[in-house]
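Hey L., structure's done. Input below.
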Amino acid sequence: MKIIDDIKQQVEKEMKKFDPRLAEKKYMKITQSIKDLFLKAVVSEKQTIKAAAHSIGINYSSAKAIWAEFRAKQKMKKNKKVDGHDKQASREVVKRCQYKILNGCNKIKKLFMEIKSSVAQRLNSTYMISLEQHI
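Output:
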């Protein structure tokens, strides 16, 4: 078997001379159990990424990739929870005609107050006119 391994190495060296992309890349497959061990070491045991990677026996760059993936998943979970609360709150704010209530809009408040006062003045004046007609 040693002869076959030597031949493979010779072939790979020759292939690298022509095109480096043709040579076989040797990567370590990171399984889910290794990821879980790493995350447990970092999260539960409060180890640094570098120390946890060294203790498990994986590359620092692989460890950073695992950590980045974990953080992205955590952010997605957090956003889903926040979005769920927003959807419930928006459902409560929607009126029967499905227009949202605008809170804090000064222009709309002013317009509403003007309409309200003008309607009140008209009601008062028509009421007074109708009373004068009866007297």
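Residues 2-101 form one domain. The chain has two domains: 2-101, 102-135.

-- N.
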